[in-house]
Each structure stands twice: as C-alpha cells, then as structure tokens.
Recover the amino acids of this structure.
C-alpha cells in the first residue's frame, strides 16, 4: 500500500466548466507565517520535484479563493456515484464509500463541486483534491481487517483492526475549546488543517435534498397540526407557507410544502439555484414579481391545491410586500445559510447576489455591516407578521442566533443573552423534538449501491411492509411517505431513500434489507442517517433545543453515540463540529453501514441500530421529556435482560419552586 499520493507526473490544469456554481472567496486572516504554513501543508501531498511549479499556483488559490483546493488535481469531467461494481477495492466497504464520496461531489448534487462543497454553503467532503485522491487510493487498497482514519479530510493512514471494527473513522473540525470559534476555524481551514464537514457532507452520507424533504414535510405538517389546529388526517390545503432559500437543503422546502398540500412562496436570491429546483420539478412556478407570486399563491389557496412558488429576490423584500399588502401568512420560516452568515450564507437586503459576491471578495467589513442591517429589518418584519397571527419558527439554520449576533438583544428570552434561548422557537423545540425525536423517529436513510432503480422499488416495498401504519400517526405519515416517494420523484444522485423511523423500526427494516441482499433479491445497500437525529447531535440551538435540564450545552451524547457505534462495528462513523448551525455551536455525528447480506452484519445491526437511536432517547428521558420517558419505559419492557435505561423520578414543580424561594429568602 502506498503511503503517499501516487503521482508520476502533474495532471494538466483544466478549465472550469461553465454554469457550475463556484464558492465565493473564503474569509481568512493569515499572517505571513500562517501563509507559509498553508503552502507547506498543501505541498505535503506532492512529491518535492513538483513543488517549484505548484507553489505559486497554490499561493494564487490561497490569495484569490481564501483556500488551497488544488483544482488541478480534480479528476476531469463529471464525478458521480456510479454503481458499486464500477469501483476497485479489496473490501465491499472500500468500494461503497467511493460511491458515496463521488455522489457528494456530483455536479447534479453538490453546491460547489469544484470546491468539494456538498451543501450548506461550506460543508465539504474534504479540504482539497489531493486529499480526495489519497482517500480514494486508500479505499481501493483497504481490507476488511484495517481501518482508515480521516482527520478533517486528511487521510492519516490505515491501521490494523479486525473484521468487526469500523472500516473508516472520521472526524471533522473538532477544535480545542479555547479556539473553538469561527475566526480560529477559518484560519485553521485556510492553513489546510480543518474541514467543515457540515453533517453528511464530511460524513459522506448526503443523498441530495430528498434527505431534508421528509424532515421538512414532517415539520410543516406537524406545525399545522399543533399551531393551526389541522386534524391529524388532513393536510395543509389552503394554507400559506413562506420561507427563504432554495439551495442544497433549503431546496427541499418547496417540494415538502407541496407534498404537505400547502401553497408556498420561497425567496431565493441566486437564480441558478431556482433553475435547478425548477428543472427538478421541486418548485412549480418562478417569478421576480411579488404581485404575481402572491396572486398565484392566493389562487392555489382558494383552490386548495398545492403550489410551490420561487420568488427570485430577497426574502426581506418579500416579507415587506406581504406586510404592506395585508397578506396572511400561516407558517413562516427561513433557511438561508445563517450558520455561515458572514461567509456568504445570507445575502443582505438591498444588495444583488452579484454585488454580495463582489463585496465578500473585496470589502468584507461593508458586507458584514450590510448583513447585520438586513437581519434587523428581517426580524422586524417577522415580529410584525407574528403580531398578525403568523407562526414563525427557526429552521435550524442559526437564524435567531445570527439576529442576536447582529445586536438584537430583544430576541433573547432573558433580554440579555442566548443562554435561555430565543423568543421564537426552533422547529425542534416545538415540533420535531417532542413529536419525533423523543420517540426516536429520525432521518434513517439508505442507498442502493447497485445503482438500480428496481432495487430502490424493492426496498421501498419492504420498508412499507415493516411499518404498522395504525400504531401512531407518525407511523401513518411515514408509511404514506414511502408509499408516495417514487411518485414524488425524490431521487437526485444515487438511488437513495429517506424514511423517518424509530429505533426498532430502523432495525427491522435494516435486517429485512440485509436478508434481501443475502437472498440475491437486491444488490448491497448502504444504510445511514442524517446527523440531524435523536442521538447523534448535541446542538442547543437545534437538535437538543427541547432538552430543558441544562444539559443542552453538553456534548456527551454525540460523543457517546460515536464511540458506541464504533464499539459495535458500524462500517463508517463520523463526528463533526458545527453541522447546520456553525462552528462551536454543535457536535454531531453519524454512521454508514454496508449491508453485504452476511450474518456478521445482522449481528452488528442488532446491537448498533438500537444504540444509535436509543442513546438519544434515553438522554431525552433523563431530561424528563414526557414522550421520551414513555418510549424508554416501553423499550425497557421489550428488551428486558439485554438493555436497561435509567428512568427519572419527577420532582413536583410547586415543591421545587417553593424550596428555591425559601432558600433565596434566607
Ligand atoms: N432544518 C434542517 O433540518 C436543516 C438541515 C440542513 C441544513 N440546515 C441549515 O439550513 C441552512 C441552509 O442550508 P442549505 O444547504 O440550503 O444552504 P445553501 O447555502 O445551499 O442555501 C441557502 C440559500 O439561501 C439563499 N439566500 C441567502 N440569503 C438570502 C436572502 N436574504 N433572501 C433569499 N435567499 C437567500 C442563498 O442564495 C442559498 O441558495 C443552513 O444554515 C443549514 O445548516 C437546516
């Protein structure tokens, strides 16, 4: 096995294909010394004989793009997640991960494929193309008694392990506490030692915006049930949902709203993203005229027909129009990339998209000021709509945190700082947390590695078979979702499916799929999940925002989930800093599990799948979340003799309150 990148000659410099989105210049404040380190770090991947030629080229990338991507090393043409048999490898996992990586970098799938960004403005598979090539080189040689270690995109090496150990263990952007902040991260990323893995970008489990359509559909439907009084067997027909963003994940909003029956207007400043969603059929109408957008929406509401409209323009302008024209909005959110608000994730009002890109590159201070001013206008408009009866929720993009950082203290519950949360709920706090995560329902997913649509059809049917739609309304929603998934044309990239399921539901489906692989009914399957789940993520502004025992600022759960999945033998395990909310604001992890039909895999699934989810439900139960306690009591009953989750005693609120009052009086 080669321990350096095999490179007899330098690949030719190639032109960039027109029409493929490119990342803006990334922020980095580097000293002369830092720049020298950045250059030496990038050259570590390249034989010395090529350094003279490459050093100025890498330096130019650092100066103009803020990072060294090593563009010259990107393989020519389109990358895509090909059928597994097209890949070389000495073990099935080594081949399977190559499918996943290439899918994450597909022009059709990735946000900025040349910069290895899959989604979420900054979420990268790895930092540069030299790492990509070296990772692939290792994956081709990896055997089933070895483990490849990846640290922030850098393949540290392959180490001996055993058949039941993970084949890949990867971490992204984990920083020492004192330095765990965006400026330090940007410096480290520019020097080539830190990767922003987002969640499934750096964890190689992205399956296109389908991944989030299901979560968004669940969120909107349950928001309607909880806040608009819509009965459990009805949808959002006649209701208006307004939001912003048609990018990597946010692109799911229009589709999810249509599946949930609503009329939706989604603002998007970047026309190229609207085009992508329109071509996919994920938005049905497009206009840059506000009057037209509103007329379309109102007609759809009147007819009770679903309709997703893309408004090409700034969300702040859209909200002002709705206010000035007294248009009632039922549900309101935002999914601009506020986790990277000053890096280009949020386009300020009054500035075109092109001007935003220029300012980002040339005048960051002015850009920052414009972002802050726009966020203030944005939240004032939300306040006004809220007063008029709109239900607004933060969509896990750090929007409220960004508003607070822009100087709006009144957004905080305690009027001072973010410690007690914000005056508006996060969607997890009010909706996904109590309705789904506390029961263990989360974004389970799979990829049919054969690349055959028929395999996906078979797995859809098998998954439906494993769900009892009469048990809970969540099960009915999930059953309907998978029944209609093909009709809703969810696939972008690999033949993949997302399906929210609880712990034992996931296990049942996983075992059924493995059996189907064993029987030769389907090819191998990669199982995984979004990190945005019950057990994998500690994130006080999102996944753990409905945990109220003070532990929402702790990162023990995600770390334990990661370690436990490794101990039980998941094929790939990942742990990241940042995720959907930004550096220092979450620790999140996920897994990938290759189903090869073996009994060995059955055994791993039987212990790893329940742990991966129930570790999270157990922590939610310990935090006294009612639905989680109910779920854990049932789990303890069903799994007596093997598992036992600690259940809290519940203190009486009045007793506690009086005791504290008395103590304070003394
Ligand atoms: N809720 C969830 O489950 C979830 C999941 C994944 C990601 N996220 C978060 O959602 C955010 C969006 O993710 P993404 O992958 O879609 O990112 P993205 O960067 O691909 O898309 C965001 C889009 O917002 C647009 N935009 C920015 N400012 C705008 C403005 N003022 N008006 C109109 N449009 C504007 C951008 O042009 C971009 O297309 C991120 O912060 C991400 O972390 C949430």
């Amino acid at each position: 096995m080669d321990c350096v990148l095999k490179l007899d000659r330098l690949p030719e410099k190639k032109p960039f294909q027109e029409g493929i989105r490119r990342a803006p210049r990334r922020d980095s404040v580097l000293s002369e010394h830092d720049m020298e380190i950045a250059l030496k770090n990038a050259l570590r991947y390249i034989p010395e004989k090529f350094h003279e030629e490459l050093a100025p080229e890498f330096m130019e990338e650092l100066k103009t793009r803020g990072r060294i991507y090593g563009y010259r090393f990107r393989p020519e043409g389109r990358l895509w997640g090909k059928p597994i048999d097209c890949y070389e490898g000495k073990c099935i996992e080594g081949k399977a991960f190559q499918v996943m990586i290439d899918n994450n970098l597909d022009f059709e799938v990735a946000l900025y494929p040349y910069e290895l960004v899959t989604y979420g403005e900054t979420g990268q598979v790895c930092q540069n193309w030299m790492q990509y090539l070296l990772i692939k080189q290792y994956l081709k040689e990896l055997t089933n008694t070895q483990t490849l270690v990846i640290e922030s995109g850098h393949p540290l090496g392959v180490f001996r392990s055993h058949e039941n150990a993970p084949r890949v263990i990867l971490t992204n952007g984990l920083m020492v506490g004192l330095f765990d902040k965006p400026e330090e991260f940007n410096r480290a990323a520019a020097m080539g030692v830190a990767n922003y893995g987002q969640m499934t970008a750096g964890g190689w489990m992205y399956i296109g915006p389908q991944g989030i359509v299901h979560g968004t559909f669940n969120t909107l439907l349950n928001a309607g049930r909880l806040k608009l009084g819509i009965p459990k067997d009805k949808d959002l027909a006649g209701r208006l949902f307004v939001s912003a963003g048609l990018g990597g994940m946010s692109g799911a909003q229009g589709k999810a709203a249509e599946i949930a029956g609503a009329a939706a207007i989604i603002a998007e400043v970047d026309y190229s993203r609207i085009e992508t969603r329109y071509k996919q059929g994920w938005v049905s109408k497009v206009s840059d005229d506000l009057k037209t957008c509103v007329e379309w929406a109102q007609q759809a509401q009147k007819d009770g027909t679903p309709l997703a409209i893309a408004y090409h323009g700034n969300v702040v302008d859209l909200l002002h129009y709705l206010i000035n024209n007294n248009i009632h909005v039922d549900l309101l959110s935002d999914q601009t990339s506020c986790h990277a608000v000053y890096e280009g994730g949020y386009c300020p009002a009054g500035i075109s998209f092109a001007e935003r890109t220029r300012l980002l590159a040339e005048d960051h201070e002015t850009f920052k000021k414009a972002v802050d001013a726009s966020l203030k206008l944005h939240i004032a408009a939300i306040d006004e709509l809220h007063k008029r009866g709109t239900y607004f929720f933060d969509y896990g993009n750090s929007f409220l945190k960004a508003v607070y950082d822009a100087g709006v203290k009144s957004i905080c519950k305690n009027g001072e700082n973010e410690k007690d949360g914000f005056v508006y709920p996060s969607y997890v706090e009010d909706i996904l947390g109590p309705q789904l995560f506390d029961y263990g329902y989360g974004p389970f997913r799979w990829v049919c590695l054969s690349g055959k649509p028929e395999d996906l059809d078979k797995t859809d049917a098998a998954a439906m078979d494993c769900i009892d739609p009469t048990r809970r309304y969540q099960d009915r929603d999930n059953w309907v979702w998978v029944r209609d998934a093909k009709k809703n044309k969810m696939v972008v990239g690999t033949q993949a499916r997302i399906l929210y399921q609880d712990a034992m539901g996931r296990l049942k489906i996983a075992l059924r799929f493995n059996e189907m692989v064993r029987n030769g009914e389907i090819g191998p399957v990669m199982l995984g999940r979004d990190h945005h789940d019950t057990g994998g993520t500690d994130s006080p502004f999102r996944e753990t925002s409905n945990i109220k025992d003070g532990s929402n600022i702790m990162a023990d759960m995600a770390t334990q989930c990661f370690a436990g999945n490794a101990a039980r033998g998941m094929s790939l395990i990942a742990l990241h800093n940042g995720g959907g909310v930004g550096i220092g604001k979450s620790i999140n992890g996920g897994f990938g599990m290759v189903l090869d039909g073996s009994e060995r895999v059955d055994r791993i699934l039987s212990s790893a799948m329940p742990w991966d989810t129930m570790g999270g439900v157990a922590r939610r139960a310990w935090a006294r979340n009612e639905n989680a306690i109910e779920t854990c009591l049932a789990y303890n009953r069903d799994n007596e003799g093997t598992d036992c989750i600690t259940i809290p005693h519940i203190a009486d609120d009045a007793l506690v309150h009086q005791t504290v009052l008395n103590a304070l009086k003394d």
Summary: The chain is about 40% helix and 10% strand.
